[in-house]
């Protein structure tokens, strides 16, 4: 088991790459959201590890096979490496909603698996989402819920965003993954410069 102090959980579709209703089935269908990979690299360079937690029901529906999933992620990781970033691991749910599994978000199973894998208390872990479902998964797992207004959330107006936030107390909203990264890095600097307890 690897023990980490600084870990962030990222959704994939709508966070790192554009969401597609028909699923990302091949590397050429992966369209990276501008600035998202650079945001991951900034976090990496500040000592943060990043993992992906993603629902991929296209597998369960027979729309995409494991070889294609792996090819898509290899393509994503190559682009990420080109800007100096990395993803430590991908945790994904291949099931359809009808399977009623415990790993398809909004269920918290994927995050529990991540916590066990890395030996980290989930309340210390920020989780980035672009949907209410994923925010609910973060809250159910005990993670810090963060909503970015990219992907599916980009089409929502302020009232719709407020309605989502009201359902997940404590959730914070950011314009983009880059804005989230800036928030996390600023917060870290404040914690570092805060005087500690007396010796």
The CATH homologous superfamily is termed HAD superfamily/HAD-like
> What structural class do you assign from the helix and strand content?
alpha/beta
CATH C-level: Alpha Beta
- The portion of residues assigned to helices is 25-40%
What proportion strand? 5-15%
- Sequence stretches where pLDDT stays below 50 over 5 or more residues: 192-199
Structure, described:
With 199 residues, the chain is an alpha/beta fold. It has a single domain (7-190), classed as Rossmann fold (3-Layer(aba) Sandwich), CATH 3.40.50. The protein has 7 helices and 6 strands; from the N terminus they run E-H-E-H-H-E-H-E-H-E-H-E-H. It has helices at residues 36-45, 57-60, 66-82, 109-118, 132-141, 158-167, 177-193, and strands spanning 7-10, 49-55, 89-93, 126-129, 144-148, 172-174. It has a 6-stranded parallel β-sheet with strand order 3-2-1-4-5-6, with helices on both faces. Helix 1 (36-45) packs parallel to helix 7 (177-193). It is globular and about 45 Å long. Mean pLDDT is 92; it is low at 192-199.
Tell me the layout of helices and strands:
Layout: E1 7-10, H1 36-45, E2 49-55, H2 57-60, H3 66-82, E3 89-93, H4 109-118, E4 126-129, H5 132-141, E5 144-148, H6 158-167, E6 172-174, H7 177-193
Parallel strand pairs: 1-2, 1-4, 2-3, 4-5, 5-6
